[in-house]
Amino acid sequence: MTIGVAIIGGGIFAREEHLPAVEASEDLTLKAVYSRSLKSAQTLLSDPSKADLYSEDSGDGKGYADLLKRSDVQAVIIALPILNQPEYIRAALSAGKHVLSEKPVAENVKDAQELIKWYHSNIDTEKVTWSVAENFRYLNSFDYGREQIQKLGRVLGFRTKLYGNIQAGSKYYETEWRKTPTHQGGFLLDGGVHFTAGLRLLLGPSDPIVRLSAYSNQLQKHLPPVDTVDATMKTHTGATGTFSVSFGTTLTGGEWTVGCEGGSVSVSGSTITTVIDGKEEKKEVEDERSGVPPEVRKWGEALAAGKQNTRQIPEEALADLELLEQMLRSGESNGAPVECTLQTMGN
């Protein structure tokens, strides 16, 4: 017996990633789609025979609260603008529905901590689970990179660099909540948590980042409030590294590199480069699309088994968010060093 799922949100990512991932899962069956407007819901699911459409302008019995009353919907995937998500998460959990909400876990660390505290205090987490999506944790290239790093001994240093130039008119830019952000960091928050998640995955849980200093900037007028951050970081064992990300630069390239006593490992797209004793070896590791298909599949498998996938606990997403937020705070203070205290699960 499969688990009935509703997709909450009719945006690009829900349409291009979540919908096909649910349809491909053996443990999940799409039962309903909700968006604030019927027009938006219809863009996600043009064939109404596949699932029921809900929206706030569809009349009586067709709103979000009505969807949550359905006994054949046991779980929801929530992919809404960042500031809107918490109220939908609370409502779904309170209705006894399992939740997979898109990253970031919340707009800021304070709100995230309050939501996580509410979840553990008010929801029977043995019966109803809240998971937070982060597709970078399901990229085969990162898993392979982590495996190679573990073979090479103590981490000596690391660097993350990802550069892009978001143009006005591009599909993600033209979503109103990204175009005119009311959340901190703009594209840096929305996209940057992917990159901190990737770095955390490669470094592993035993040597978390504990301190950082950063400078931030807005290079492009159409990418407020900031589109660029450059940080130096220090881990628990004293290893240092850099994190350089811009959504508004003509610089190009993207990679995560970790240097260890026995060599170095770089992840760039599906290419993993290992250098040991001066000898370079490249390996192509195929990712399953963006990582969303295995992410949703693993979520469904865990629900079917009555468990929660540990890579999806909200505390992991909180740690991703903390690094990004602390870079923004440091940047606002002209590079003042800040502590990172939420990188170890259980803090």
Question: Layout of SSEs?
Answer:
Blueprint: E1 3-8, H1 12-24, E2 28-34, H2 38-44, E3 52-54, H3 64-68, E4 75-78, H4 85-94, E5 98-102, H5 109-122, E6 130-133, H6 140-150, E7 155-163, H7 176-179, H8 187-203, E8 209-217, E9 228-235, E10 240-246, E11 254-260, E12 263-268, E13 271-276, E14 279-284, H9 292-304, H10 314-332, E15 338-339
Parallel strand pairs: 1-2, 1-4, 2-3, 4-5, 5-6, 7-10
Antiparallel strand pairs: 7-11, 8-9, 8-15, 9-10, 11-12, 12-13, 13-14
Helix pairs in contact: 1-9, 5-10, 6-8, 8-10
Description:
The chain has 347 residues and is α/β, with parallel strands linked by helices. The chain is 33% helix and 26% strand. The chain is built from ten helices and 15 strands. The chain has helices at residues 12-24, 38-44, 64-68, 85-94, 109-122, 140-150, 176-179, 187-203, 292-304, 314-332, and strands spanning 3-8, 28-34, 52-54, 75-78, 98-102, 130-133, 155-163, 209-217, 228-235, 240-246, 254-260, 263-268, 271-276, 279-284, 338-339. It has a nine-stranded mixed sheet with strand order 14-13-12-11-7-10-9-8-15. A six-stranded parallel sheet has the order 3-2-1-4-5-6, sandwiched between helices. Helix 5 (109-122) runs antiparallel to helix 10, helix 6 runs parallel beside helix 8 (187-203) and helix 8 (187-203) crosses helix 10. The mean pLDDT is 96.
Please name the defining characteristics of this protein.
single chain; about 350 residues; alpha/beta; nine-stranded mixed β-sheet; six-stranded parallel β-sheet; 10 helices; 15 strands; about 35% helix; about 25% strand
